[in-house]
Structure formats: C-alpha cells, structure tokens
C-alpha cells in the first residue's frame, strides 16, 4: 500500500522536473503516513535533471530585468528555487520518522503548492521563449538541507524558517521590478507564491516550536545557537515584517531581526 513517506521518497528521486511537479500535484495527501521503520533511502537524493548546470552563486551573471534576457534569468532563478522547494518538502517527509500524521500531511501539502509554483514559472518561462534548464543555477538551498539532514530541529530552523522565509522579504521587491518592467503575469505569479509561502513558513514555525517544546528548549535562544552551529547566512533587511508576523514569527524574533 502506498504511504505518504514512501511516495515522498519516490517523488524526491524523480529526475524529470515536469514529471516530479505533475505527480506531486496529483498525489493524495490523505494517504497514511507509513510505519516508522519501513522507509529506506534509494537512488540519488534529490533526483536532478541533466540541466541546469549547478554553479556557485557567485558565478551567476546578473542582468537587468528591463531586458528580455534579464526577465528570463530572473524567472528561471525563481523556477529553480521552487523546484528545490518541492524537494525540501518531500525530503522532510521521508527522512524524519516517528512524527504525528499531521506533520507528514502538512509537508506533503506544501510540496503540492511548491509544485504549482514551479509549473506557473515554467509556463511563464515558455511564454518568454525559454525553458527551465537553459541557464545555470546554484545549489545553496539544498546545501543547507544536506548540512541539517541528521537533525529535524536544525532542518526546520534553517530551511523553512530561514532560507524559505527570506522569500517573504524578497517577493515584494521582485514583484515591483517585474511590474515596472511590464511583466504583469510574472507579478501575478509572485502574488500567488507570497500568499502560499506565508502558509509554508507558518507550518515551519508550528513544527519548530513543537520540537522545541518536546525537547524542553527555548525557541529564540535555540535558533540563535543553531544559526551559529550550522553557519547560517546572516539575515539582512529590509524585512517583510507583516508577512513574517502572519507566518508565525514572534514579536520578540521580529524585534531581534530589526536590530
């Protein structure tokens, strides 16, 4: 019988991005989570297409969004982030066991929405005359997932609550750039993504606080310790405080961010 955790691993190792997105959107989030000891890793994690080439982020060329090439580069980079986000949600489901059924159902729901985001951006790329894989991309998001693969608390703290939460800050200025460049469809897609990402980060905050409670840890001090331990990138403003508050960050955390 299929279970969410078996399906998550099967989707994670799928190499074709279109197939991964299509099957993730079609999966049934009501499947049982699966027994704790039945899931073992297989294949290359995550499954990667032959393209795009993955390079250090310092090697990516910045282009003006007011040119077609610049808009293609920006939308391509966003599509790459959303494909990584599918993998991150799938990975947290199969990798970490002995958690409440709601944990797996919620993260598979996140994967479904990330798959929609990827498809929206992929199709928009096509309307601009390009395809996902045409340009190089970086692997920074997955690098943090690798570094935190042995500890659920670190994974939640430094992926959804740090790397993905940066999307809450970045979306409004990116949307404004696209709109100023005349890319109304791109701006509309950013609206969808920001709306959904607030919910995704809220799920991260919920389970981060739950694990802290289970381990008897104070959330704010623990986050600071994990950020130092795993060399998380330093967060720089401006911050979307309204979106972060809606996503469940505490007023104390937001005050620390502003300082």
Could you write a compact summary of the structure shown?
The chain is 64% helix and 0% strand.
Pattern of helices and strands: HHHHHHHHHHH
Helix content: 55-70%
Shape: globular
Strand content: under 5%
Output mean pLDDT. Answer: 93
Structural category is: mainly alpha
Rounded to the nearest angstrom, the distance between the terminal CA atoms is 51 Å
**Structural Rg:** 18 Å
Report the strand count. 0
Oligomer status:
single chain
Low-confidence stretches: none
Largest sheet descriptor: none
How many helices? 11
What is the domain total for the residues?
Answer: 2
List the helices and strands and how they pair.
Blueprint: H1 4-12, H2 17-26, H3 68-95, H4 101-127, H5 140-147, H6 152-163, H7 166-180, H8 184-215, H9 219-229, H10 241-246, H11 251-258
Helix pairs in contact: 1-3, 2-4, 3-4, 4-8, 5-6, 6-8, 7-8
Overall description:
- With 259 residues, the chain is mainly alpha-helical.
- It has 2 domains: 1-147, no CATH class; 152-259.
- It is built from 11 helices and no strands.
- Helix 3 runs antiparallel to helix 4 (101-127).
- The radius of gyration is 18 Å and the shape is globular.
- The mean pLDDT is 93.
Keywords:
mainly alpha, about 65% helix, about 0% strand, about 260 residues
């Amino acid at each position: 019988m299929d279970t969410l955790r078996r399906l998550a691993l099967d989707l994670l190792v799928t190499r074709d991005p279109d197939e991964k997105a299509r099957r993730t959107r079609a999966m049934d989030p009501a499947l049982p989570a699966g027994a704790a000891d039945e899931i073992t890793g297989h294949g290359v994690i995550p499954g990667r297409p032959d393209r795009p080439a993955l390079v250090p982020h310092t090697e990516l060329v910045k282009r003006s969004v007011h040119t077609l090439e610049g808009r293609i580069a920006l939308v391509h980079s966003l599509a790459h982030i959303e494909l990584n986000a599918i993998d991150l949600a799938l990975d947290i489901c199969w990798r970490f066991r002995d958690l409440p059924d709601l944990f797996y159902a919620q993260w598979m729901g996140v994967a479904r929405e990330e798959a929609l985001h990827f498809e929206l951006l992929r199709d928009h790329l096509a309307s601009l005359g390009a395809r996902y894989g045409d340009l190089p991309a970086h692997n920074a998001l997955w690098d943090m997932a690798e570094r935190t693969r042995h500890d659920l608390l670190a994974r939640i703290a430094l992926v959804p609550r740090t790397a993905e939460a940066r999307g809450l800050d970045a979306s409004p200025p990116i949307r404004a750039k696209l709109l100023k460049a005349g890319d109304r469809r791109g701006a509309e897609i950013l609206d969808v993504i920001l709306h959904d990402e607030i919910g995704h980060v809220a799920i991260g905050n919920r389970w981060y606080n739950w694990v802290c409670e289970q381990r008897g840890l104070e959330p704010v001090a623990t986050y600071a310790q994990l950020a130092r331990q795993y060399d998380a990138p330093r967060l720089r403003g401006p911050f979307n405080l309204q979106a972060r508050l809606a996503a469940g960050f505490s007023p104390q955390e937001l005050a620390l961010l502003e300082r």
